[in-house]
């Protein structure tokens, strides 16, 4: 669903109206605010007919005789509630008829100079509502000498992904799983099972195969113990409230025990929820506790929004908006990089290298010493448990918590890698 606001700088020219209509169709705009139309109220209906019956309109002629703001929407797709109108703005609430999307939409015209106090109030509003700045591309300001050719102001186009098609979620190890009583049991079972059929492979391949089996076990554990976390929390709250109501009328040992059980479950799952939000938000400077879930959740949503790729332009300037088009363009881009090679490379000046600083014989010998188990331990402990996981979804906390089970095979795999100077080819 696309929303747009555009300072068209006059709309009395029939050619300009046709181009605006074409722009709205090409960009699949559902709600649009046309600003500074400069159309007199008596000429309004004549211009409206050119946009067609799919559009419904509202204006601020009651506050401005020149109709400074025209607000249009496709009535088959959305409903628009007008909340307030002035000479410089129309404040609305937009709701998709599918029920999947709703938002406030307020086109505003330039007014008097904004004061520092108003700026502080606006910043406080943004922080209080946990809002984040939209990603954008194109002109930094809406005004430009190189507008759309129809106006010296560029349109502001906002894409709201109502039906986002995403692939299946890749596995990710959540830190709270390490506290589950069955965590080590699940790792042990998967690590033992993964040995079969891989005895002749190299050590790295064996570790990779075992991790795949452990991953399946952890997925099953997560599905059984932590799936639909928000729904579980709401159900526990409902049950707890019901028990507390019964306690007010008839305090019995069974009800007291039941209340204690529900309270402990609620604390447990609230802690799990906050831990998950913190891990997804990648906030490192704030610890779990003090009801930070709301802050972590806001940071997580902002990070997801910033990391998503909603629009991409190919080398010819074509705008790509569908997931399939974007995936294809990214794939072709990197295939082009990998399949090209420089015609020549600058050689190393051996004389400069020989005259420069060199390692001593003892330092050179230290570099080729065998990797010890204590060095592997130190390397693992030096990784922050809150850092992003690898491609397999396992972060360093998983290895630290499961180290007693997996360290023997990991030691051998790392040492084999350095002894033979190479990896296994990926399947």
TrEMBL record:
Protein name per Swiss-Prot or TrEMBL: Endonuclease/exonuclease/phosphatase domain-containing protein
SUPFAM superfamilies xrefs: DNase I-like
Domain of life of the source: Eukaryota
This protein's UniProt keywords: Coiled coil
InterPro entries associated with the record: Endo/exonu/phosph_ase_sf
Gene name for this UniProt entry: LOC110804851
Annotated coiled-coil segments of the chain: 219-246
């Amino acid at each position: 669903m696309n929303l747009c606001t555009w300072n068209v700088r006059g709309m009395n020219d029939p050619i300009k109206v046709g181009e605006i209509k074409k722009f709205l169709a090409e960009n699949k705009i559902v709600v649009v605010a046309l600003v500074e139309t400069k159309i007199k109220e008596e000429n309004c209906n004549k211009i409206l007919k050119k946009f067609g019956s799919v559009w419904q309109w509202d204006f601020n002629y009651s506050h401005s005789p020149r109709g400074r703001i025209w607000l249009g929407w496709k009535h088959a797709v959305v409903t628009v509630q007008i909340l307030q109108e002035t000479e410089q703005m129309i404040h609305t609430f937009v709701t998709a008829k599918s029920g999947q999307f709703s938002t406030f939409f307020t086109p505003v015209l330039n007014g008097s100079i904004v004061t520092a106090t108003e700026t502080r109030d606006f910043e406080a509003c943004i922080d209080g509502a946990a809002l984040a700045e939209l990603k954008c591309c194109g002109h930094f300001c809406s005004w430009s000498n190189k507008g759309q050719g129809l106006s010296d102001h560029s349109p502001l186009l906002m894409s709201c992904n109502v039906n986002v098609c995403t692939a299946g979620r890749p596995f990710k190890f959540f830190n709270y799983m390490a506290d589950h009583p069955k965590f080590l049991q699940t790792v042990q079972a998967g690590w033992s099972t993964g040995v079969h059929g891989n005895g002749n492979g190299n050590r790295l391949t064996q570790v990779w195969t075992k991790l795949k089996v452990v991953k399946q076990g952890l997925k099953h554990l997560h599905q059984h113990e932590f799936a639909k976390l928000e729904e579980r929390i709401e159900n526990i709250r409902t049950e707890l409230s019901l028990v507390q109501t019964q306690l007010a009328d008839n305090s019995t040992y069974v009800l007291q025990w039941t209340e204690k059980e529900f309270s402990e479950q609620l604390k447990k799952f609230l802690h799990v929820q906050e831990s998950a939000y913190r891990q997804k938000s990648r906030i490192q400077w704030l610890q779990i506790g003090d009801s930070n879930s709301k802050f972590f959740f806001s940071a997580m949503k902002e990070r997801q929004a910033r990391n998503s790729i909603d629009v991409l332009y190919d080398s010819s300037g074509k705008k790509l908006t569908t997931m399939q088009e974007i995936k294809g363009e990214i794939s072709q881009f990197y295939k082009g990089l990998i399949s090209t090679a420089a015609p020549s490379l600058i050689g190393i000046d051996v004389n400069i290298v020989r005259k420069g600083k060199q390692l001593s014989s003892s330092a050179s010998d230290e570099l080729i010493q065998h990797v010890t188990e204590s060095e592997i331990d130190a390397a693992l402990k030096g990784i922050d448990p809150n850092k992003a996981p690898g491609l397999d979804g396992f972060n360093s906390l998983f290895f630290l918590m499961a180290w007693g089970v997996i360290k023997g095979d990991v030691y051998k795999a790392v040492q084999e890698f350095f002894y033979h100077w190479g990896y296994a080819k990926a399947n």
